């Protein structure tokens, strides 16, 4: 093996050793406060099986507004129960919000910094699953002032006015998005309800039609039996 080949092998070994090391901190220059900072929101739907429990976590800083909206879109089973038990736990484990209904909202100001746990329980419905649409996130009621540092220089009146207007506009758009998500929940729930009612009416109409046809056939069959007469002969004559 030549010296050039040995150099290439050593270089590959060094690169492989460095790449194989686990990266413990993707951004060591950022703290947890800076990494999770920012108003955000999420909305999606899940299917929760019978008597099942599912939890999600979301990060919030102290002083931020945390919100959770949910709605049961459809449920299956023999004894359909659309009630859903929802709990929100603080990072310390304390319950900060609880709702037991088919739809609801939990909103509060975060008193602790950390991951808040949202748990959805379908223990009311023991024999059927349900689809849940949820919308949760955090926002800043005064986001313009919350991001200012104490040592930040005083801005002039024009820039200050632009910054305040932008903050108010951002907050207004955020709340419009929340109302839009709630309307999406209601529309989806109405759609599944109409679809369920349509299937129910179609099924029972077909069953009732079949029963009516079968009842008419049986009535005709028994009526014909009442008028059945045997032909009489000299040996076989009807008797009283």
What features would you describe in this structure?
- The protein is α+β, with helices and mostly antiparallel strands.
- It has a domain at 27-193: GOLD domain (Jelly Rolls, Sandwich).
- The chain contains 4 helices and 8 strands.
- It has helices spanning 3-20, 32-35, 143-146, 157-226, and strands at 40-48, 53-60, 65-75, 84-89, 95-101, 103-109, 114-121, 130-139.
- A 4-stranded antiparallel beta sheet has the order 1-8-3-6, with helices on one face. Strands 2-7-4-5 form a 4-stranded antiparallel beta sheet, with no helix packed on it.
- A hairpin with a 5-residue loop joins strand 4 and strand 5.
- The longest helix has 70 residues, at 157-226.
- The radius of gyration is 34 Å and the shape is elongated.
- Mean pLDDT is 75; it is low at 15-27 and 143-153.
Poorly predicted regions: 15-27, 143-153
According to CATH, the fold-level topology of the domain at 27-193 is Jelly Rolls
Topology as a string of helices (H) and strands (E): HHEEEEEEEEHH
- Major beta sheet summary: 4 strands, antiparallel
Total E-strand runs: 8
State the helical fraction: 40-55%
Structural class: alpha+beta
Q: In the CATH hierarchy, what is the architecture of the domain at 27-193 at level 2?
A: Sandwich
Radius of gyration: 34 Å
Short description:
This protein has four helices and eight strands.
